[in-house]
Amino acid sequence: MHSLLFLLFMASTAQASEVGQVHPDQLENLVRQDCGACHGMTRKGGLGPDIRAQTLSGRDPSDLAEVIKNGIPKTAMPPWGPLLSDAEINWIAQYLLKEPPK
Ligand code: HEC
Q1: CATH code of the domain covering residue 78
Q2: In a domain, 10, yes or no
C-alpha cells in the first residue's frame, strides 16, 4: 500500500495556504500591518482606537469577533467577514486579548 505516500501528500497540501484556514504567522502579520494601518503597529491607536490587550481586557471575545467581522457602520472600521473566515476572526479576537503588541 502507498499509505505513507498518501499521508505525505496530505501533509504537504495542508501546508498550502487555503482560504479559511488559520495560519497564525499570516494573521499576526495582518494584525500588525492591516489593522496596524489604523490602530497603530503596536495597537495603541491612530485613526482607530487603542486595541491593546490591556485596554480590551475584560471584553467578550465574541463581541470583538463580531466587530471585526461586520465592521462598525458609518466609521472607518471595515468589515473583515468578506476577507477572513470565522475561524480566523475568532483567532484574531483571542489574539488581541492575549498577546501584548510586539
Ligand atoms: C481603515 C481603518 C481601520 C482598519 C484597517 C481597522 N480598523 Fe478597527 N476600527 C477603526 C475605527 C475608526 C474604529 C472605531 C470606530 C468607532 O466606533 O468610532 C475601529 C474599531 C475597532 C474595534 C472596536 C474597539 C472597541 O474598543 O470597541 C476593534 C476590536 C477593531 N477595530 C479591531 C480591528 C482589527 C482586528 C482590524 C484588522 C483586522 C481592524 N480593526 C482594522 C478603524 C480601522
Answers
A1: 1.10.760.10
A2: no
